[in-house]
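Task: complex structure prediction.
Instruction: return structure tokens for all chains below.
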Amino acid sequence: AAGVIQSPRHLIKEKRETATLKCYPIPRHDTVYWYQQGPGQDPQFLISFYEKMQSDKGSIPDRFSAQQFSDYHSELNMSSLELGDSALYFCASRNRDPTDTQYFGPGTRLTVL
Amino acid sequence: QKEVEQNSGPLSVPEGAIASLNCTYSDRVSQSFFWYRQYSGKSPELIMSIYSNGDKEDGRFTAQLNKASQYVSLLIRDSQPSDSATYLCAVVRGTGFQKLVFGTGTRLLVSP
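Output:
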């Protein structure tokens, strides 16, 4: 079965640079969530999109922005990167079934030097 | 206080034993409850979901939910070394495509 695809899988950036993370949800899934997981921490919700509209916003810095496109893929744009942005970034998708089940992609490991 | 609480562990059990993982949550409007397994550096993998009070069994895994006590648990029978991972309890509040709120996870170590 098709899973959530994230790219790139690894990314190394310098401080103050920008990064773009991409997420391709499972086919026919219309909701995308972004989570950030720092070392030794649990995943923290950043932002979500339903039918290409922002549906919820969590602890996402103002330096970050995101959007969902017409093909339902989503991009997380991160600017003025800081050392503390180094983390695993997961995308999860779900469809309209009532089970609330989210399926996670493999993640992007971002390292800021 | 975190909205979802778990004992960070590590919880050490011998191979073949039952591992019992516990989770409490603070928001009474929580509707959906999940257990994810996460290996180091990998993404969370859904193990079990539970929505109503009682037990739900799937193979070696049993999830238990008690909404009155705001308590969720996961039992792993016949634990295997490959079960060694961090188990994340996650909660969805209300309805309408809400986000997952995670606990800090319990690290399980199964020794051969």
